[in-house]
Amino acid sequence: MKNSSRSVCQFAVWLGFLLGGASACGSSDSGISSGSSAGSSGTSSSAQAGSSSVGGQGQTNSGGSANGGSAPTAAAGTSAGGSTGASGSSSGGSSTSGGSPGQAGSAAQAGSAGSVASAGAAGGGATTTAHFSFFVTSLEAIRRESKNQNGYGGNLGGLAGADAICTRIAEASLAGSGAKGWKAFLSTSKENAIERIGTGPWYDRNDKLVASDTAGLLQERPNGMTTINDLPNELGIPNRAGTGTGMDDNHDTITGSNTQGKWDGGATCSDWTSASGSDGPRVGHSWPANSGKNWIQAHTAPGCEPSVALVQTGGGSGDGIGNGGGYGGFYCFALKP
């Protein structure tokens, strides 16, 4: 009987051990499954996030370990915007040993939040045109801003008005760039163009260097890596492309300046407030021509009246500001490249 009781007892212990092991096994399977799901989600988030900053990863990991992959980790992930998925995966993994499948599920949510943060960062992230700080105003932009097919002529609203035109054109070309402090490269009887535009460097819309400093700018053609013999407009297109023929005679670009970017006593259309008269301002050439190669000063325009002349011979006639081959376009520079 003793042996029988002992056998029954041993059987009970063995059965209890077996059932307990199965239960533990089931808990482990559940944890691994949930943790794996969370880890998968976390890995996906990390992949979408790409290479976030090291600082962002540090914040995310801290948030994940503090909360074990719970909902607050998702909040930390969205603010870090970086490797939230990696943190979610870690949290999901820790739930296999320390907790319930529910925690692993929260970790999966954290990984999902990392994906959202990643998408947000990508939407407002870096751009290859981050240095955009120079352009020639295109004919299209001049017509749009002036609401006149013949452009502004010499009346740009003074220097302040011309600066505002540069700012609007820049913003229309690249959202956010209007805040860079745009200045028109124009001289008046009181102010010199070269002293208005900062110290450089300046880049075109394609992120190519126009000039590193004023010394590099004050050459016959700027000494940067841009298309110096056909300076680009606000869209990064060489200006002569113009209407698409690549042969537009549109090089005359008003400056009111000498080759050093300073007023030399010549006409400035009443300091850029007049659109009448035959006393035209100095113009440079956005691309070289037989009548002059300098981008700042090549000759004078026929007058200050609004006009567009894309096909002409010689220096032009009449009182139109564009009659020598242009449309009253000008150069714009940003103070903050």
Secondary structure elements and pairings:
Elements: H1 2-49, H2 54-67, H3 71-80, H4 84-98, H5 101-123, E1 134-136, H6 139-146, H7 158-173, E2 182-184, E3 202-203, E4 209-211, H8 214-217, E5 252-254, H9 269-272, E6 282-285, E7 299-300, E8 326-334
Parallel strand pairs: 5-8
Antiparallel strand pairs: 1-8, 2-8, 3-4, 5-6, 6-7
Describe this structure in words.
The chain has 337 residues and is α+β, with helices and mostly antiparallel strands. The chain has 2 domains: 2-123, no CATH class; 134-334, Roll (Mannose-Binding Protein A, Chain A). The chain contains 9 helices and 8 strands. It has helices spanning 2-49, 54-67, 71-80, 84-98, 101-123, 139-146, 158-173, 214-217, 269-272; strands spanning 134-136, 182-184, 202-203, 209-211, 252-254, 282-285, 299-300, 326-334. Strands 1, 2, 5, 6, 7 and 8 form a 6-stranded mixed β-sheet that branches. Helix 1 (2-49) packs antiparallel against helix 4 (84-98), helix 2 packs antiparallel against helix 3 (71-80) and helix 3 runs parallel beside helix 5. The longest helix has 48 residues, at 2-49.
Shape: globular
| Total count of helical runs of at least 4 residues | 9
The gyration radius over C-alpha positions equals 34 Å
Would you identify the CATH architecture of the largest domain? Roll
The structural class is alpha+beta
The share of residues in extended strands comes to 5-15%
Concise overview:
The protein is of the alpha+beta class and 337 residues long. The chain is built from 9 helices and 8 strands.
Features of the shown structure:
9 helices; two-stranded antiparallel sheet; disordered N terminus; alpha+beta; 337 residues; 9% strand; six-stranded mixed beta sheet; globular; Mannose-Binding Protein A, Chain A; 2 domains
